Give the backbone structure.
Amino acid sequence: MTYRPLSLIAAAALLPSLVSCGSAPDPALPPLTQDALDAVTEDAGAPKDQLARQVDELFTMEGLGETRAVLVLADGKVAAERYAPGYDADTRFVSWSMAKTVTAVLIGMLVADGLLSVDEPAPVPLWQRQGDPRADITLRHLLQMRSGLRHTEAGDPPYESSEVRMLFLDGRDDMAKWAKEQPLEAEPGERFEYSSNTTVILADIAARALTDSDNPDARRKAVADYLKQRLFAPLGMTSIVPEFDASGTLIGGSLMHATAGDYARFGEFLRRGGQAPDGEQLVPTRWVEAMLKPSPVSQHYGYQIWLNRPEPELEGGHPLFPERAPASMFALIGHMGQYVIVSPQQRVTLVRLGHSDSEERPPMLQQAADVLALYPVR
């Protein structure tokens, strides 16, 4: 028989009551609203109540900003779809920088057509003059945001930023011309610098590959027709409206408009390696693989797309959540909290559209990670 001092026996007997007095039990979760439950389908691929709650919290939790639309696809099927009051499945939402990834696919189709080459000097006549160091910039440098051009995305004050000047001030009528005229501030290929100006240069290169005309209407029509026939129509993206500047250049870095459903269709197209729903290969699989390969100077960025890979030297925090999801995950990201997050290993595409400032985006992303966490990695 083991001897236990009386004092220890008494203390053990009192322990449950001491614990209950010292800490309150977790409050019961509030019941889900009918709106929250109705947002989730029966074949959601995840526990319905849990998915409904996590999606609901994207709309209702304090400190996340304003969520206007959430659409979750699992195995290509709608798992959850919900809109804030005033928005619905027919609302076109501005892409902001999510448009960059569409531009990268446009370039990929032109490469596949033999009209462009990623490792030759970028076909920008202004840079090909004798002695111009910008002649060393390749299409790959532009795609990976490492051209070395003096493009400052965010300025202080804001009107000093290259993006604002190009979109709204002295560059607005011919955005590509303004972007191409900027000098080098680093050796081409040397360092990563995110830049909407760079994507407009890519859009201008695409237009010049499709037409010899400098007429704005001809340039606009050449690019719009190509995108519609080769990409948007096969994907069923009937709502998408790309914007062009006065010179007929696609504003491919920031201004397209589409429904949440069409953004999800584009995410699924990338998840399928460039295939349309009917199996047609719209862009080579190897191009999508190249898009998702980390740049030599930034592990978290590919060809105009964000990657969920750790980047130890990153200033300002990672734009995704590599600690909570597979490294194969990738995302289209737009200003103020527009996201198309694609996780191939979980077979999930998550669209979140709304308005979140710089402080609200990190917790909002963690809530999006909670949604993805309901799906197993396969």
